[in-house]
Amino acid sequence: MPQSGEDAAQRRPAVEERDLTEQQLGLRQAEERLLRDYIHRLVKQSPEYPNYQYSCKLCSVHIENIQGAHKHIKEKRHKKNITEKQEENELWALPPPSATQLKAVDAAVREVAAQQGISEEDFKVRETVVTRMEEVIKRHLAGGSLQLSSL
Ligand SMILES: [Zn+2]
């Protein structure tokens, strides 16, 4: 799949792998892990929080450093947010129903309607009640300035 320009630029390491010191490599691996927790290194430091290097997109908080980030992902609020996010992602990833599945749901609904749905007779009775209620309401509203809205 072709990548958008922005994606490609973000994934391209700033320096060649062989030039990284072990410490830098460790930091990069730690940052990659934190990305799974929606914690990003700030590209541009916020003028309000000049000492903060990371931000959690899920909780909308700034985090000072990598230690702070590791602490943050263990917090209750973050754990709750990440669970919700994962559930949301799973729902979005659900495939649309197949024709066979739709047919099965349709058949099931029809069956329930046939067993427990209201009869033609019931429907007429209910319709009469609604008509009577409408008359009562109209009578009480007659002469007033009220208008029935579609809401
Ligand atoms: Zn968070």
From TrEMBL:
Q: Name one GO molecular function term.
A: nucleotidyltransferase activity
Among InterPro entries, the record links this protein to: TUT4/7_NTP_transf
* Compositionally skewed regions (Basic and acidic residues) per UniProt: 8-21
Which stretches of sequence are listed as region Disordered?
A: 1-23
The segment(s) forming the Terminal uridylyltransferase 4/7 nucleotidyltransferase domain are 84-148
What Gene3D superfamilies does this protein's entry cite?
A: Classic Zinc Finger
Q: What is the protein's given name?
A: Terminal uridylyltransferase 4/7 nucleotidyltransferase domain-containing protein
The species is Oryzias latipes (Japanese rice fish)
What is the phylogenetic placement of the source species in the record? Answer: Eukaryota, Metazoa, Chordata, Craniata, Vertebrata
